[in-house]
Amino acid sequence: MSVGMRPRLIKAARVVTMCDEDPYLIAAEPAFVTIGEWITAVGEYDDLLAQHPNAELVDFGNATIVPGFNDAHQHPTMTAGNMRGVDLSHATSHAQVASLLSERISSSATGEWVVGTRYDHAKSGDITPLSRDDLDELTGQHPVLLINIGAHWGVVNSAGLHAAGLTEASQDPPGGELVRDADGRLTGIVHEQALFDVAYPALSRGNPAIPPQDQEAALAQLIETLRALNALGITSVGDAMVGPVELGLLQEAHRRGLLTVRVNALLTYPHVDALRRTGLRTDFGDRWLRIGGIKAFADGAVAGGTCLVDEPFEGTEDHGIQTLPVEELDELVELVHRSGNRLAIHANGDRAIRMVLDSIESARQKHPDVQVQHRIEHCTVVDDDIVDRLRRSGTIAVPFGSYVDFHGDKLLAYYGADRLERMFAHRKLLDSGVPVAGSSDFPCGPVEPLRALRSCITRRSGSGKSDGQVLGGSQRITPVEALALYTTGSAHASGEDDCKGRIWPGFLADFAVLNGDPLTVDPIALPDLDVRQTWVGGEPVWHLGQER
Fold first, then answer.
1. Long-range CB contact pairs, 353-358, < 8 A, 24+
2. Which of 328, 373, 482, 538 is surrounded by the most beta carbons within 10 Å?
3. Where are the domains of the chain?
4. Is 453 within 8 Å of 486 (Cβ atoms)?
5. Which residue numbers delimit the Amidohydrolase domain (predicted)?
6. How do residues 320-361 score in pLDDT, each as one tens digit?
7. pTM to 2 decimals?
């Protein structure tokens, strides 16, 4: 605890502690004391004032204080990098996509990459994605890349293929696909590793085709991204795609004191050997920036219809994409487990999840003395057998929070109503005793935690509107359980449940101040609650009215 610092005495009409006995702090005037970045006492305001007569008083009045939201799996460094591109998430037609790209092309130097991010063809007026030829009509002088909102596939024009060194003779990279037409010509659509090699330094097998940014520009974008997270009440995140470039950026932000969100960095698997050679392990770092584990991929995307499933996608014979051969998966899982590191592996489809569990169980049998809880990121399509194996192996599930709300109608077309009853299976997982964390996967899904709570509680599509379809209604959970996903659940997933996720003595003073109570408000209206202030480490980092 900090010594010699003036205490703060903080009160509000309601304080949600998220302690096991009762989610609320039971007191006539609930309050708590912070010294430095820690909470030191909770209780009645008058009692705490008597104990700390010189404390600085902070009264939020008729508000609700909740532990800061902790998004266990998103991509803040990717989101910051996307700011150099064109955000296409609101485009409602291919013509609008083309117009936005053309505007950027006209202001870019010849030969400069033009990147469109968060492209969603299903919401852009056509179920058929734009192709290489469509993009060639916009420009022959600029390499162009469209990145799908799921970030597991994209579309490249001819100039982009050339800049990436891809020709009709190029072979599919391991764990990726260069899509071709009936004549064998590249369509410009690139899946998984083929996209990563073009766009993402954390996952590229070499230097990605798109050149890196200037560090000062990248830092400015990162800080803007973190401020936007603070505005939503977010105080901690898991950055689920960190390589040397991204880690260097986060470290520089930390060195300069610019981090306003605590970061649990998941280092991507191409760099696992380098980490092992240094002797660094999971949990290395401090309360602001730490290594949270090793990130790997077993299959494709749920929203993109490329995850590896037992039952093919509706109306097709397609079972999705497996991104790691079983032998490599077994080797990677054993290496990570044996070294005492946490594995955080992306597996959406039920077939992929079974493969991952096979590897985890095998590694545990070979090295029974190693005690570490692994994570399955997304863990989307499950059944009773999978859930039982998750429980017995102590594996943490990190499902999407908002995907029914945001992607619901698209998911219905891919998976059908029956399968949706066992997707994002929060109810089943919690009832079975599986540890579960809250995750947005932003920018691949909506980032707002309150929207995720609504989705988990209502399971309604169409942005949670009362007339939206209920999809997988058997997996609804209560408001307290939904809030726990984004507080205590995510803290457990990062191995920090001893200091995060609760408003209680000995925990970090990370909290959000809301203008209403998320546990009693109509769930449909949850995203309408205002975040009045966000505090991290006992200090305010954002307030309502402040520019993001």
1. 353/298, 353/379, 353/381, 353/382, 353/386, 354/386, 355/298, 355/308, 355/322, 355/326, 355/329, 356/298, 356/329, 357/386, 357/389, 357/390, 357/393, 357/395, 358/326, 358/330
2. 482
3. 85-199, 298-477
4. yes
5. 56-541
6. 999 999 999 999 999 999 999 999 999 999 999 999 999 999
7. 0.92
